[in-house]
Amino acid sequence: MSSPAYKVDLGAYRSGIAKVYAGRPRGEEVRRTLGLAERELQKDARIEVTVPNDTYSVTSSFILGLLGDAITRLREDGFRRVYHFNGRDITPVIEDAIQAVLHVSSPFASKAK
Q1: 3-state DSSP assignment of residue 83
Q2: Closest CA relative to residue 25, chosen from 68, 67, 66
Q3: Distance between CA atoms of 57 and 60, rounded to whole angstroms?
Q4: Which of 23, 34, 51, 77 could in theory staple to 88 by disulfide, Cβ–Cβ 3.0 to 4.6 A?
């Protein structure tokens, strides 16, 4: 039997009445506050993130701060197995973050000829 999902309501991490989640430092702060690094590595981890429906915007920088390390550590399949999103659809931002973390090569990487 799998353990119950850890529920994250981003609405609890708004700055006042703001409906925008922006900035890598803010995403990193929320990540630390929630202890996501430890939770996502637990056996059968499942983390459900609710994005309030009245959210105006979730920026890629916020998502990279919140989830970039998870994408790096868990890789794409593991990330998709652990993290689930509901509420306002932010699929394009999540997909962009996955691409940015896993599929963008370093400008300093050697090029095969």
Answers
A1: strand
A2: 66
A3: 10
A4: 51
* Residue 89 CA: distances (Å) to CA of 29, 53, 104: 22, 8, 24
Closest CA to 101 of 111, 93, 91: 93
Q: Give kind and range of the element (H or E) at residue 6.
A: strand 6-9
pLDDT the model gives residue 17: 82
Buried/exposed code over 69-88 (b: 16+ C-beta within 10 A; e: otherwise):
bbbeebeeeebeebbebebb
| pLDDT on residue 111 | 45
Answer whether residue 113 is part of any domain: no
Determine, yes or no, domain membership for 12.
yes
State the chain's mean pLDDT as an integer.
90
The sheet carrying 47-51 orders its strands as: 6-9, 47-51, 83-87
Mean pLDDT, residues 53-63: 95
